């Protein structure tokens, strides 16, 4: 029997985080520099971008996420907002939103990641930050879309808090702003059951919706909307039903059905009591 060609190529490279974080965590838990160290090497940007190679599951997720972010911008703001991206990495989200924003500022701890972002988005400003203290939130004189993608799942608690406290301050200082933070390993998704399959106990991180909401609430961030993508686990994409999985993922994302069991959830956050 002929097996149909997989629609998605498997990612060749494992992420830096998956490779190194379990060891780092065991060595010194609760040290914010652990997570940051993963992205410091010269090879980190290329390894990170390899995950998003055309045809991979991550490239598909990126495409769904980018379309939704651009539509959110168009719906929410009368004028193009300023984009502030915390833990911007190689500029993936800055680039995805650049057509909808008037300018962008990215923050990250890694010079290697920032240098790649500067080459990718030459019109944006990129600032290096310390890994244990939030930078001064800019006062930009108009509404901001503040984003923090792919940080809270794998990072340790101090790093999550640093990022959320920065976003909360950005929203307080710039009225009319919103923040978007994603959790790309939702505990209640089907990925939960796939995490042990064929992985020989390899560490895969998860974060529950309740944990994410508690984190936001501690910083005065209120969830006003959410968007879920990727309902079928990545392992299915290389299989015979890969094409169907892609179609179903796109369909559920467009309709926003079953958000609570999506693998990757983007939360739209506003500052609580912004007007009081
Ligand atoms: C998984 S990458 C995500 C990059 C980008 N947000 C994206 O979605 O493509 C995580 C990024 O967080 C950065 N990072 C780690 N700790 C940080 C901290 N304390 N403050 C700011 N950035 C940090 C890393 O250098 C890395 O670029």
Please name the CATH architecture. 3-Layer(aba) Sandwich
Q: Assess the beta-strand content as a share of residues.
A: 15-25%
Q: Class in CATH? A: Alpha Beta
Which ions, cofactors or small ligands are bound in this entry? S-adenosylmethionine
Name the CATH superfamily assignment. Answer: Vaccinia Virus protein VP39
End-to-end C-alpha gap: 67 Å
The Cα radius of gyration reads 18 Å
Q: How many helices does DSSP assign?
A: 10
Largest sheet descriptor? 7 strands, mixed
| Rough outline | globular
Number of domains: 1
Alpha-beta content class: alpha/beta
What does this structure look like?
With 276 residues, this protein is an alpha/beta fold. The chain has one domain (16-271): Rossmann fold (3-Layer(aba) Sandwich), CATH 3.40.50.150. It has ten helices and seven strands. It has helices spanning 16-27, 32-37, 44-50, 57-76, 92-97, 111-120, 157-173, 191-194, 209-218, 242-255; strands spanning 82-86, 103-108, 125-128, 144-148, 178-183, 221-229, 264-271. It has a seven-stranded mixed β-sheet with strand order 3-2-1-4-5-7-6, sandwiched between helices. The longest helix has 20 residues, at 57-76. It starts with 15 loop residues before the first helix and ends in a 5-residue tail after the last strand.
């Amino acid at each position: 029997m002929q097996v149909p060609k997989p629609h998605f190529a498997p990612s060749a490279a494992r992420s830096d985080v998956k490779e190194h974080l379990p060891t780092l965590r065991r060595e010194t838990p609760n040290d914010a520099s652990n997570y940051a160290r993963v992205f410091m090497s010269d090879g980190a940007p290329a390894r990170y971008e390899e995950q998003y190679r055309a045809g991979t599951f991550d490239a598909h997720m990126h495409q769904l996420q980018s379309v939704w972010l651009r539509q959110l911008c168009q719906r929410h703001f009368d004028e193009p907002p300023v984009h502030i991206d915390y833990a911007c990495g190689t500029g993936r989200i800055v680039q995805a939103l650049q057509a909808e924003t008037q300018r962008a500022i990215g923050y990250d701890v890694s010079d290697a990641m920032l240098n790649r972002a500067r080459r990718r988005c030459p019109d944006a400003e990129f600032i290096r930050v310390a890994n244990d203290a939030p930078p001064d939130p800019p006062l930009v004189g108009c509404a901001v879309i503040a984003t923090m993608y792919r940080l809270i799942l794998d990072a340790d608690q101090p790093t999550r808090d640093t990022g959320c406290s920065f976003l909360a301050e950005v929203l307080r200082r710039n009225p009319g702003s919103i923040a978007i933070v994603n959790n790309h390993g939702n505990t209640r998704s089907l990925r939960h059951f796939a995490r042990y399959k064929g992985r020989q106990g390899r560490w895969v991180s998860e974060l529950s919706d309740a944990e994410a909401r508690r984190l936001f609430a501690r910083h005065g961030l209120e969830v006003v909307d959410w968007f879920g993508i990727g309902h079928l686990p990545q392992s299915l994409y290389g299989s015979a039903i890969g094409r169907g999985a892609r179609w179903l993922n796109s369909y559920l994302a467009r309709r926003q059905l079953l958000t609570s069991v999506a693998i990757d959830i983007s939360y739209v956050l506003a500052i609580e009591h912004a007007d009081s």
